[in-house]
Amino acid sequence: MSTNPAIASLQPERQALKIPDHIGVIMDGNGRWANARGLRRSEGHRAGVQAVRRIVELCISYKVRCLTLFSFSSENWRRPPDEINFIFGLLRRFVSSDLNRLVAANVRIRIIGERAGLESGLRAIIEEVEAKSAANTGLDLVVAFNYGAKAEIVSAVRQIAGKVATGEISPDEIDEALLDGHIYTHGLPDPDLIVRTSGEMRLSNFLLWQSAYAELVFVEEAWPDFDEAVFLKVLRTYSERDRRFGGIAS
Ligand code: IPE
Ligand code: IPE
Ligand code: MG
Is residue 231 part of a domain? Predict the structure, then answer.
């Protein structure tokens, strides 16, 4: 992409960067971004969608295999109904317009999270987009919506317990790979990098199982300000990390 000439001139540096296979993003700070500009929180969410479009293009351009975006948590139901409705409206539009365009661009889409809480119209569009893109071979785009990692683990454990109860598997067959096979992100690599914007340093119930060995990078910029310069800063930080996985320095 590199529309910015200053960034295009960083081409040699770009080649030296380590590119994670899977990036997870906690897109935080929309509300504060808007408040700081005297705008309503909803304007921050609207600007956040533009940043989503940017990071998807950046991941395609930098050949990241998989991108998971945290867009609504199971705890976000604690927000005022007006804000929740606004976010759902944005998601509905994003799923029906942007995602369809991305399907045509060879992006494979998966929406993770609890579907039972979503209205049937939205569920149907999500299922259609996933089915249409299932054979795509480009970027794996995972949207975590109505997602909570603890609920995801509970749901996997419940499915496994059901199989034990019917005798399909025995308790000693339960291992990490089996649990991996029952979580929403089954078949995708674990995230190498988790990024959170807006200066908050916590995971807020995002990909707890999958991020056991992820590098965590926190940036001060609010999500609506996420652009190629911030993306490069994050990749630079990630590239400098020594991932030891319990071993010794490389
Ligand atoms: C992230 O921005 C978007 C969602 C959680 C849906 P916030 O809405 O959390 O913005 P802040 O953290 O209040 O600034
Ligand atoms: C996490 O952000 C959820 C998303 C980015 C969708 P929050 O703003 O909801 O997290 P907390 O409440 O500050 O931990
Ligand atoms: Mg927040």
Answer: yes
- The answer to whether 28 is a known catalytic residue is yes
| CA angle, residues 76, 237, 235, in degrees to nearest 5 | 75
Residue 233's H or E segment, with its range, is helix 228-240
Q: In this predicted model, what pLDDT tens digit does every residue of 160-197 receive, in sequence order?
A: 999 999 999 999 999 999 999 999 999 999 999 999 99
pLDDT at 3: 56
- Dihedral, CA of residue 150, residue 71, residue 35 and residue 4, to nearest 10: 130
Q: What whole-number distance in Å separates Cα of residue 66 and Cα of residue 241? A: 20
**Catalytic residue among 28, 30, 192, 205, which?**
28
To the query of whether residue 76 is one of the catalytic residues in this protein, the response is yes
Domain count, the chain: 1
Range of the domain at 74: 18-238
| Nearest bound ligand to the CA of residue 74 | 2
SS3 content of the chain, % helix, strand, coil (to 5): 50, 15, 40
Is 25 part of a structural domain of the chain?
Answer: yes
Report CA(42)–ligand 2 centroid distance (Å). 15
Domain CATH number, residue 103: 3.40.1180.10
Is 26's C-beta closer than 6 angstroms to any atom of ligand 2? yes
Of the candidates 90, 153, 86, 96, which has an alpha carbon nearest to the alpha carbon of residue 121?
96
